[in-house]
Amino acid sequence: MTVINPPTIALQGRSVAKSFGSVSVLHDVSFDIRSGEVHTLMGENGAGKSTLMNILAGVHQPDGGEIELFGQPVAFSSPHAALSAGIALIHQEPQNFPDLSIAENIFLGRGVPRGAIGQINWGEMNRRTAAVLNSLGVKLDPRQRMSGLSIADQQMVELAGALAQDAKILLMDEPTAALTPGEVERLFAIVRNLRETGVAVVFISHRIPEVFEIADRITVLRDGNCIGTRDVRETDKSEIVRMMVGRPLGDMYEKPDAKPGAVKLCVSRLTSGSRFRDIGFEVRSGEIVGLAGLVGAGRTEVAEAIFGIRKRDSGTIEVDGVAMPIRSPSNAIAAGIAYVPEDRARNGLLLPMSIANNTTLASLPAVSTFGFISGSRESQMAEAWRRTLKTRLRDVGQPVNELSGGNQQKVVLARWLETKPKVLIVDEPTRGIDVGAKAEVHHVLAELARQGTAILMISSDLPEVIAMSDRVIVMKEGRISGEFARGQATQERVMRAATVGDDAANGVRPDAGRAQRRWSTLSASREWGVLLFVVLVFALLTAKDRRFASADTLRSILTAMPLIVIVASGQLLAILSRNIDLSVGSMLGLAAIIAGGIFVTHPGLPVAVAIIVSVFVGAILGLINGTLVSLLRVPAIIATLGTFTAYRGLVYIWSGGKQVAKDSLPPALSTIAQQGPIDIPWFVWIAAAVAVAMALFLRFFSTGRYIYAIGSNPRAAQLRGVPVARTILTVFTLGGACAGLAGILYGARFGTINPADAGAKPPMELIVISAVVLGGAAVNGGSGSVFGTVLGCLLLAMVDAATSILSISLFWQRVFYGGAILLAITSDSLLRRKGREA
Question: Whole-model pTM?
Fold first, then answer.
């Protein structure tokens, strides 16, 4: 007799429940996941699928029920805890660190290889990264930055991260939503290999054909309840759809044959850089024209150019036969064009605002009187569209970010339909929404076409394109490669046009990924540009007055830098972590007045004690700032603006408005700023040591890389298990310690400590922020270096010297500081925008 061993249950849930406030999302959900199977989780948007996955991955904690991992009860308090137990979650939108390398994205927060003293072992990390990428058949350099990768490669890196941690259970949320058919097949081949090795793979998907191709079992959720689990071999698509929506759905696509009228939209010879070239087509009244092609073919870019979001180099856009000078979305709206973007969360909605606010955003004059918006009229308009589109919501005052993806899409549609457009452009209108919501969106589009609206629909879902379109236009590498009438369009023909096309006619568009990587590399190497700028400024100033290159001037520049370098090194940590510290000058002054006062009351005290006290005071003040920001969640700019004033007041309270006179400070303190090895003062060496230590800390220790990760993507840092609160505390504490050290060195350099001057002439905050951003640090975090910051300090010291030699007013120095900040911010924004557009 043959004994068949039952499959191993890797993960099991019993009566799992979860609510957010008064909204119950999961009710009494029970399930099991087996090793060596592909298990698909399906259901309409809002059914509770993502919530269940987030509970399994430790992002959320359940309110009730229990979960067992290989037969043992577990409760995950964080994503890191779940990952440590062998459960990895790959999100629909890759949660990565764009400013960090592929290797760091794979290992950061997941167990970085370390050396003998706890430092990051970069060689081992890159070697292991290359090995896991090769096992997936991915040819990427572990040292390459994530910001230059395609969505498919980003997903592969996340998958590699899970495999590098030897995950036993792999959770994937809509893994194929942004992939081409070829990339989907590549992913499925990897998933099948993982299944063969015993990994339990669970993923959410709305694409029923793909589910039946890859899954072993399907579990369906509806309205937070588990409807049931089916073996793929014992069910069919109709049953799964009935389980999902609670009724037979009928034909998914209900688009009757159109009777096109007059031409509403005519695009001629539209060209935009390397993204697309010589695009021309027409869309008629009552017609749906599908725009198909692989991801990266330029479809979205064409839509953005028509709507005025993307600059075009040439070409004309006509509406109702009239050429329209569309240079902005407002121009497009005035011309009767509406655009539902591909990424509804980022570009289509104001997520914290209400459903009513989002619905009326493009039609504010209709709900306003003399410029004052009527809340009741807003609600009435939103309520009318809720009934028309059958949007599921609690009330129209509800924040739109609380809705499911399908219902959010309906809110975006409602906003633009209220403008009564002549031409409606919809980009991926059903991406990431369930079959029920898809059918409703298709019905809305078909009804709009019947009423005479001209619709341009972009979609990567070929069955959707073919069934809903009256004509299909195909793009390949920025050119139109084919056009098919409704009866002629088949999946094979469309895919051939998208992948093969007519290369002789179309030519080859420059690699957009290469262009994006070029801008990414330029953005990452801004420090070298700063170095060239420093050399240029030095040359210009020397040409203006040869005294600028004299030994005395160079020494003056060198001695002006240490205090700025030390404080700026601490400010760099704050800016890297997407924060700012406006209180560094006040901390410097308070630490200096407290430490200097020690010499007044204890004249014979060693200088080393005063240095320790000053650093300690600065660290405590920084810790207070960090507590406000990381634990109490006060925005850094508000928290440190408050402590800036408070610490400045304490300087006067502690000192009584009196300075620490020169004769109260020991001669040994002044020696620090006057003598040292090879005729370079000790405080210059101290600043150099601080800069080197900070550079090593940021490069070779996990906390240093965590700072970059938090600044690059705070959400991803939390999901990866990066200790965000502890890291932010460290950032502000170290920044305070640097300000404290600079405080006592202030007394060493100037020989006195005046509460009216310490850190205030010009404001130290202005100086160090200027130095950091001039040194190439990204103002929105995640990118920057100590090397660049030192260069920024050098540039400011040169400007300080120039004001004296060239007899320039000190007020112009402040103008330079402010202008430098604005220039750096503008440059950073342009580099990032060019990277996105490339």
Answer: 0.76
